[in-house]
């Protein structure tokens, strides 16, 4: 029950956070000298009524505070306005967000199932050639710029022809059977996933190694060893649980980093995700689109952090005690 | 303390190598005007996308000769439907060392004409090929490096005072001030940093001089990072603010700001040094990412990121791999910074000394 209350409290805390985020984003965007409707006005396929409606909805003739209130009201109602092409922003987002989530969730899953074991091995066999090789490899992984790595993989794909270039689906996607569809999507995912996986794996492996080394140095582990427990039991039964906990907090940050890293990777691979959407919006100074995707990015990030916090409450009894 | 850091840096083989590499890079950038055979704006349109110049030291009779090079000529191959480059063997261009070339101002005010190496007036010596405008990639790498390798440091010098003061005030004041200030910082951190970065960059008005743009990008980079840093500082301030020396300062009547700046913040010095060295690379990466998208440093100025912009086209990366050189340089520089940062952390932060 206490746990439930804490989780509820934590969820309620995100509301003021979201309001501040929206205020910050709104003012940054509105302070720019760009006319929010400039692109719409230039587009001949957008009718006069749509323009009127947008001016009304955004309250462009009124002071900026009222503009914000108007914007917030329609945002809560789910009305995000139209893009400069005259499409609904919400349909655009519905199309793109699942793609970005798919990419990041796969990457996080893969980094966790490989990063943690590799981190444990590095810590247990500290100073051995294996550990040294891992240090070098993770050093390389952390230093390579994501977009540059993506470009290199692109060359590889073009030269070998093993992987499709760009997009998420082939042109004949609609006619495929379900199995072929899944195969097609996974083929398109290989390259972007590789880029993001390499970069986040390096960070996670290092973190895991450092955490486990910290824990292995603590008194209770020394005691467990002194008691005559086997090394296997010491590590997996006693040390590991405490070493993994900080990583769960990191999960939220990792998600944030991935969203950012994904933007560049999506751009290079022409992957239809949120990052590329916001970039297209920015380049076309499409204010509605940018504002909405910025908010969606923030919401995803906050949700990720929230999820990590809740997980931590479940795994770490100490935090439960503190909060109650 | 600094002595110990330095000793450790030299002792560690990787860190020492990293130190040497960075020293070479920064020296080269400092003397860029002298080392580069051309200025960053020199362009010869007839030389668009020529491959790296071949340097010969054995002449056609099989004898040793002073190093020389041939120019490339462009022609259209009708069978393969693409432009091919052939060496124009009719005219030799000798490589000349310490000879006169394009005039430049060393350090911005000493007019000089000598270059480390150059060739005669009609010859083109493009060590790393040319870009779409027929500009020397090698020279532009040197000039672009000046921007790419300093922008991170500059951003840090803007960001750290802000973060320190913000975190210091929030932590020391406590109560409502603390809550409001930290909520704001958390909100900034809740926006995916790269999204915020591209939006801030796109808001920049066009028609600025390149210096203005450079400064504004520094500020934008700083705006992204201060919040996370302020939060850590606040945590450290909380842990020292009730210690005796702070109370002593309070009892002799020091003002709040004085206590924060003079007594509390110095306690965070070693953390600040570690955080700074560890975050330089991420700012180098951010700048290059931003310029890669065309939102950072703009043409005709060079930066390693915007030089890579040309590598976005398939044809470029397949037929003109020399355009990728800046990417390798970013990689090497970031790797070197990381290695040094790790070593400094091990020395200054004894908790993580286990390696």
Overview of the molecule:
With 324 residues, chain A is mainly alpha-helical. Chain A has two domains: 64 residues, no CATH class; 188 residues, MetI-like (MetI-like fold), CATH 1.10.3720. Helices cover 80% and strands 0% of the residues of chain A. The longest helix of chain A is centred in the middle third of the chain and has 39 residues. Chain A is globular and about 80 Å long. The N and C termini of chain A lie close together (10 Å). The mean pLDDT of chain A is 82. By secondary structure, chain B is α+β, with helices and mostly antiparallel strands. Chain B has two domains: 242 residues, Orthogonal Bundle (MetI-like fold); 90 residues, no CATH class. Helix content of chain B is 57%, strand content 15%. In chain B, a hairpin with a 4-residue loop joins strand 2 and strand 3. The longest helix of chain B is centred in the middle third of the chain and has 37 residues. The relative contact order of chain B is 0.13. The model of chain B has no long low-confidence stretch (mean pLDDT 83). The chains are: A mainly alpha (324), B alpha+beta (355). The interface between A and B is large, with 56 and 47 residues.
Largest sheet of chain B: 4 strands, antiparallel
User: In total, how many beta strands of chain A?
Assistant: 0
Major sheet summary line of chain A? none
Amount of helix of chain A: over 70%
Question: Largest interface here, residues on each chain?
Answer: A-B, 56 and 47 residues
Notable features of this structure?
heterodimer, A: 324 residues, mainly alpha, 13 helices, B: 355 residues, alpha+beta, MetI-like fold, 2 domains, four-stranded antiparallel β-sheet, 4 strands
Write the layout of secondary structure elements.
The complex is a heterodimer of chains A (324) and B (355).
Chain A: H1 2-31, H2 38-42, H3 48-58, H4 64-77, H5 89-124, H6 129-143, H7 146-160, H8 178-216, H9 219-226, H10 231-269, H11 274-283, H12 287-315, H13 317-323
Helix pairs in contact in A: 1-12, 5-6, 5-8, 5-10, 5-12, 6-8, 7-8, 7-10, 8-10, 9-10, 10-11, 10-12, 11-12, 12-13
Chain B: H1 2-11, H2 13-30, H3 32-35, E1 55-58, E2 64-77, E3 82-106, E4 110-119, H4 137-173, H5 175-190, H6 193-203, H7 210-240, H8 244-251, H9 256-264, H10 269-292, H11 304-308, H12 314-319, H13 325-348
Antiparallel strand pairs in B: 1-2, 2-3, 3-4
Helix pairs in contact in B: 1-2, 1-13, 2-4, 2-13, 4-5, 4-7, 4-9, 4-10, 5-7, 6-7, 8-9, 10-13
């Amino acid at each position: 029950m206490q746990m439930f209350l804490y989780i509820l409290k934590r969820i309620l805390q995100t509301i003021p956070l979201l309001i501040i985020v929206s205020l910050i984003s709104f003012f940054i965007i509105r302070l720019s000298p760009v006319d929010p409707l400039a692109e719409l006005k230039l587009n001949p396929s957008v009718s006069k009524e749509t323009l009127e409606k947008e001016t009304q909805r955004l309250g462009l003739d009124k002071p900026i505070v009222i503009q914000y209130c108007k914007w917030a009201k329609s945002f809560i109602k789910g009305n995000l306005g139209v893009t400069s092409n005259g499409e609904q922003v919400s349909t655009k987002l519905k199309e793109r967000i699942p793609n970005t989530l798919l990419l990041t969730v796969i990457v996080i899953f893969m980094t966790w199932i490989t990063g943690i074991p590799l981190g444990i091995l590095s810590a247990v066999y500290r100073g051995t050639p294996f550990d040294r090789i891992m240090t070098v490899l993770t050093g390389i992984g952390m230093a390579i710029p994501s977009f540059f790595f993506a470009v290199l993989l692109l060359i590889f794909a073009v030269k070998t022809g093993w992987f499709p270039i760009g997009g998420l689906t082939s042109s004949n996607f609609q006619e495929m059977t379900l199995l072929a569809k899944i195969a097609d999507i996974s083929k398109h995912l290989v390259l972007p996933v590789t880029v993001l996986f390499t970069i986040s794996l390096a960070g996670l492996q290092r973190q895991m190694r450092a955490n486990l080394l910290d824990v292995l140095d603590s008194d209770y582990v020394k005691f467990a060893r002194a008691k005559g427990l086997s090394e296997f039991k010491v590590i997996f039964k006693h040390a590991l649980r405490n070493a993994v906990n900080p990583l769960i907090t990191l999960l939220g940050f990792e998600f944030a980093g991935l969203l950012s890293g994904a933007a560049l990777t999506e751009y290079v691979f022409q992957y239809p995700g949120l990052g590329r959407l916001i970039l297209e919006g920015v380049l076309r100074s499409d204010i509605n689109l940018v504002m909405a995707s910025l908010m969606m990015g923030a919401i995803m990030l906050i949700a990720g952090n929230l999820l990590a916090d809740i997980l931590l409450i479940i795994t770490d009894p100490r935090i439960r005690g503190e909060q109650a | 303390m600094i002595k110990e850091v330095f000793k450790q840096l030299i002792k560690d083989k990787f860190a020492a190598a990293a130190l040497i590499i960075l020293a070479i890079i920064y020296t080269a950038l400092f003397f860029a005007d002298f080392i580069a055979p051309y200025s960053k704006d020199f362009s010869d349109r007839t030389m668009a996308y020529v491959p790296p110049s071949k340097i010969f030291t054995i002449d056609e009779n099989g004898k040793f000769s002073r190093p020389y090079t041939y120019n490339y000529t462009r022609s259209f191959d009708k069978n393969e439907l693409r432009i091919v480059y052939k060496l124009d063997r009719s005219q030799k261009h000798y490589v000349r060392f310490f000879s006169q070339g394009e005039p430049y101002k060393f350090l911005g005010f000493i007019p000089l004409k000598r270059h480390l190496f150059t060739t005669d007036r009609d010859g083109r010596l493009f060590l790393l090929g040319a870009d779409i405008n027929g500009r020397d990639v090698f020279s532009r790498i040197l000039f672009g490096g000046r921007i790419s390798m300093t922008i991170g440091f500059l951003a840090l010098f803007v960001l750290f005072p802000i973060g320190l003061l913000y975190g210091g005030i929030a932590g020391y004041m406590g109560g409502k001030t603390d809550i409001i200030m930290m909520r704001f910082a958390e909100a900034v951190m809740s926006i995916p940093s790269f999204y915020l970065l591209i939006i801030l960059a796109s808001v920049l008005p066009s028609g600025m001089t390149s210096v203005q743009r450079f400064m504004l990008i520094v500020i934008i980079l700083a705006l992204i990072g201060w919040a996370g840093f302020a939060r850590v500082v606040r945590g450290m301030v909380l842990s020292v603010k009730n210690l005796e020396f702070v109370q002593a300062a309070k009892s002799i009547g020091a003002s709040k700001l004085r206590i924060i700046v003079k007594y509390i913040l110095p306690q965070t010095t070693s953390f600040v040094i570690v955080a700074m060295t560890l975050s330089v690379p991420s700012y180098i990466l951010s700048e290059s990412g931003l310029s890669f998208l065309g939102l950072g440093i703009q043409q005709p100025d060079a930066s390693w990121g915007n030089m890579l912009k040309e590598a976005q086209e398939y044809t470029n990366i397949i037929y003109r791999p020399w355009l990728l050189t800046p990417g390798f340089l970013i990689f090497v520089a970031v790797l070197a910074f990381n290695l040094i940062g790790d070593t400094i952390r091990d020395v200054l932060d004894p908790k993580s000394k286990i390696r």
